[in-house]
Write a structure and sequence with these properties.
Layout (H helix, E strand, L loop, with lengths): L1 H29 L9 H38 L2 H4 L3 H16 L9 H38 L7 H39 L4 H6 L3 E2 L14 E2 L2 H32 L2 H16 L2 H23 L8 H25 L3 H9 L4 H29 L3 H6 L17 H8 L9 H35 L1
Antiparallel strand pairs: 1-2
């Protein structure tokens, strides 16, 4: 609550600073004390930056240092017998005290000594937060007054504001890049620990997937079987079924929207179609498990076929429905980007509209459409919830869409469920699967983006 009040106060001060800065600049211009270097708005932004950035810097430093200082004060307030506990037990004791201080202690009656320490800790935390609010607001007000006092006609407010914005953009892009690098390094490091225990050849080309520890020595998984080929096969099978549904439906809807639909109908139908992209995947999973899978099972019974209640067919069809807006939107953008002059040239030689679409528009848009299909494939490969709820967890090596299969993403989620220790091949296998999935989707995205870039260079 205190942070919310502080954030609201900073916003109010920033708004006041903007008004004061802009008003003073307008007054200087009206008083003919000199020609303003920048527009009055930039002087308002200049005051806002001086009001907000020092306050945010102080807030970040305070929050980072507060934890270390409060932790040291809490440890020093403990009796000698408690400070000499092992690190694990001391950490649990400190967590109990913090929970009591915050009112989250689950026990009905806390230890009286712990209650006293928790009360002192809560009092210190309250004093620290009140001091933080005072210091941060003081820094904001000081920055506001300083910036307003510096406003003169010769002040290069626009240059200063744009320089700060440039620095913020660089910091934001750097954080994004470093986050990506951190994700890759974490995958590579943990996957390396896995491959130190399991041969990469056995992992990439093995035909048995049974990562759990067996109860008897004669079971398949006695020493752990980490052959990931059944997972790769299940992933490709479901993705193939999904694309068989999404590609024709999405492409045909894009052609109709771009070439045949009336503008008024397009304005209504296109947003309705794209609503499918906003439905949570868990809802698609419920739809697949409760509606589509029983439908295919009953249909197979009527036709004399054996279709599992959890089948690749049900998961693939529902996943394809989910990807239809993705394919349709990308294909529609590519088709509408084809120059109108190419259509008019086709009409000039006597071609009909359907012939123009088949022989002129689609060939011209083909690179972009293929790039969109590849991006949709990577989207299908990375889906989890639909497969968990509709295709099951059985790692079967089969090409039969009527049987239950599993995918790489489902196994990653399964291996990391619950309290896991990251020192066994079973848990580390999730990182190896994640690394393989990352490499596959990265390659597909690079190929798709290169194809789309080539298309754009051709027609822009």
């Amino acid at each position: 609550m205190q942070l919310i009040v502080l954030a609201a106060s900073l916003l109010v001060l920033s708004a006041v600073g903007f008004w004061l800065g802009r008003t003073k600049a307008v007054g200087l211009a009206a008083g003919k004390r000199g020609v303003l270097h920048s527009l009055p708005t930039y002087y308002g932004y200049y005051v806002v930056l001086w009001c907000g950035l020092p306050a945010l810097l102080v807030l970040i430093v305070w929050l980072v240092g507060e934890q270390q200082i409060l932790h040291g004060m809490l440890v020093s307030s403990l009796p000698e017998s408690a400070r000499s506990l092992p690190p694990e037990r001391l950490g649990l004791l400190l967590n109990d005290i913090k929970n009591i201080a915050s009112g989250n202690f689950s026990g009905s009656i806390a230890d009286p000594d712990l209650q006293l320490i928790a009360d002192d800790y809560a009092r210190i935390v309250g004093i620290s937060r009140m001091a933080m609010i005072v210091v941060v607001l003081g820094a904001a007000i000081a920055g506001l007054l300083y910036a307003r006092a510096r406003i003169v006609p010769r002040l290069r407010a626009r240059n200063a504001v744009e320089a700060v914005i440039r620095v913020l953009l660089i910091v934001g892009s750097t954080v994004a890049v470093l986050t990506t690098v951190g994700i890759i390094l974490s995958l590579v490091f943990e996957a390396g620990r896995f491959f130190a225990r399991v041969s990469p050849v056995d992992f990439l080309f093995g035909l048995e997937w049974s990562p759990q520890m067996a109860m008897r020595a004669d079971q398949v998984g006695a020493a752990g079987s980490f052959g990931a080929v059944p997972l790769f096969a299940g992933t490709l099978l479901i993705a193939f079924i999904a694309m068989c549904v999404a590609m024709p439906v999405g492409l045909m809807s894009a052609i109709y929207m771009a070439e045949y639909a009336h503008p008024k109908f397009r304005m209504v139908a296109k947003p309705l179609l794209e609503i499918l992209a906003g439905i949570p995947t868990v809802v698609y999973g419920f739809f697949a498990a409760l509606t589509v899978a029983p439908f295919f099972r009953n249909l197979g019974f009527d036709l004399g076929l054996t279709i599992s209640s959890e089948s690749a067919l049900a998961a693939g069809v529902v996943m394809g429905i989910m990807i239809i807006p993705f394919v349709s939107s990308l294909s529609d953008d590519v088709i509408t980007a084809v120059p109108q002059s190419m259509r008019e040239g086709s009409y000039a030689v006597g071609a009909t509209q359907s012939e123009t679409i088949r022989r002129v528009v689609l060939p011209a848009a083909l690179p972009g459409i293929v790039g969109g299909f590849l991006l949709a494939v990577s989207r299908a490969i990375g889906e989890t919830m639909i497969v968990v709820m509709a295709a099951g967890l059985a790692a079967n090596l089969t090409a039969n869409p009527f049987q239950a299969v599993t995918t790489v993403t489902v196994q990653i989620a399964t291996l990391l469920v619950g309290d896991q220790e990251f020192d066994s091949p079973k848990t580390l296998a999730a990182f190896a699967l994640g690394l393989v999935l990352f490499c596959v989707t990265l390659v597909l995205n690079i190929i798709a983006l290169r194809i789309v870039k080539k298309y754009r260079e051709q027609y822009e």
